[in-house]
Amino acid sequence: MNFGNLIGAIALIVSLIIIWEIRTVLLLIFAAVAFATVLNRMVRRLQRSRLNRGFAIALTIGLLFAIMGLFFLLIFPTVVAQFQELLELLPKALAQLREWYRWLEKFIPNQLMEDIQNVEFLSERISKISLSWFGGFFSIFSNSLDFVLNLLLVLVLIVMLLANPTLYRQSFMLIFPAFYRRRVDEILQGCEKNLVGWAIGRIFNMVFIAIVSGLGLWAIGVPLVLVNAIISALLSYIPNLGPILGSIPPIALAFLDSPVKGVIVIIFYLCIEQLEGLVLTPMIMENEISLPPAVTLSSMLIFSQFFGLLGLFLAIPIVAVLQVWLREVLVKDVMNNWTQKGAYGAQVKDSLPGEPLTDYEP
């Protein structure tokens, strides 16, 4: 390795260390960019209604602050109180389920009892995971000054980005060669489409789950309706696993009252899941990003492991942006245009997966 390569390797290592040390700041900046991109779509629609941009931005930000203020003033105190009560009632509910389990041991065959034991162990593990996630979530809201400061930082960045998004977009494009900047602009448009689709799909899905589950639990007579509805809505953000986690607290509380009510709540959540999968998801699929479920769930687990709760909630938009860059740059601009020198200097034609590379052109 010559001296230049050594300096380059050292610079790369130092850059990676610096990026890792400021990873939280970078995630907050990405959050501001993502939300500013989504809000900018609303600002542009208001501008089409013959409003000037400044008034459109003020109206959008004012609406955002009104929703947040309404949540913190009217809903948040009730949610915190009900969540604390939920933490006190869940151990009693689990103890009641264990009593029902001991009673069933007398009537169920041994092999089936072994399967039930495995299911019970899995449900206890899932409930512990969900409680630890949401215990940390509400402690961040109620006890951490860092959360408030980070939220203010993100809001200030959002306002700055909305004020003149073209300036920041063009500044970002300057880091690329001149011949590739038009292509970068197309890629950024794809990123914007993915981010807006993700936001619309998630918000619509979570609001739907919150309203339907809240009304259903209220009709059934399950206690702590508000916090259970919010937990179900927030956990629906996690694909596949989220609806299961969100149903555990209300099911446990229902069984604490009576086994019949518990069975009704189980059937109710199964109906919600079917309604979401057969009706809601096809309706919003045009706006949602097309990510395989395994990729989505794996990315959320990986980001939550490395970056905590913030990484968990930003995993999908980050993967949505990475998906566009990988597809457009790596696949279309590099891999699809890659030519390989064949025998005697001939170039191998592009082929479909599984086809032998036997055709050559001089």
Structure commentary:
The protein contains eleven helices and two strands. The protein is mostly helical and 362 residues long. It has a two-stranded antiparallel sheet. The longest helix is centred in the first third of the chain and has 52 residues. The radius of gyration is 26 Å and the shape is globular.
Task: Give a quick rundown of the structure.
This protein is mainly α and 362 residues long. Helix content is 81%, strand content 1%. Strands 1-2 form a two-stranded antiparallel sheet.
Helical content (DSSP H or I, runs of 4+): over 70%
Strand order of the largest sheet: 1-2
β-sheet strand percentage: under 5%
- What's the overall average pLDDT, rounded? 77
SSE sequence, one letter per element? HHHHHHHHHHHEE
The low-confidence runs, each spanning 5 or more residues with pLDDT under 50, are 342-362
Give the CA-CA distance, first to last residue.
38 Å
> Which structural class matches the secondary elements?
mainly alpha
Cα-atom Rg, whole angstroms? 26 Å
Globular, elongated, flat, extended or rod-shaped: what is the shape?
A: globular
Query: In total, how many beta strands?
Result: 2
Query: How many helical stretches?
Result: 11
The biggest beta sheet is recorded as: 2 strands, antiparallel
Jot down its keywords.
81% helix, single chain, globular, two-stranded antiparallel ribbon, mainly alpha, disordered C terminus, 11 helices, 362 residues
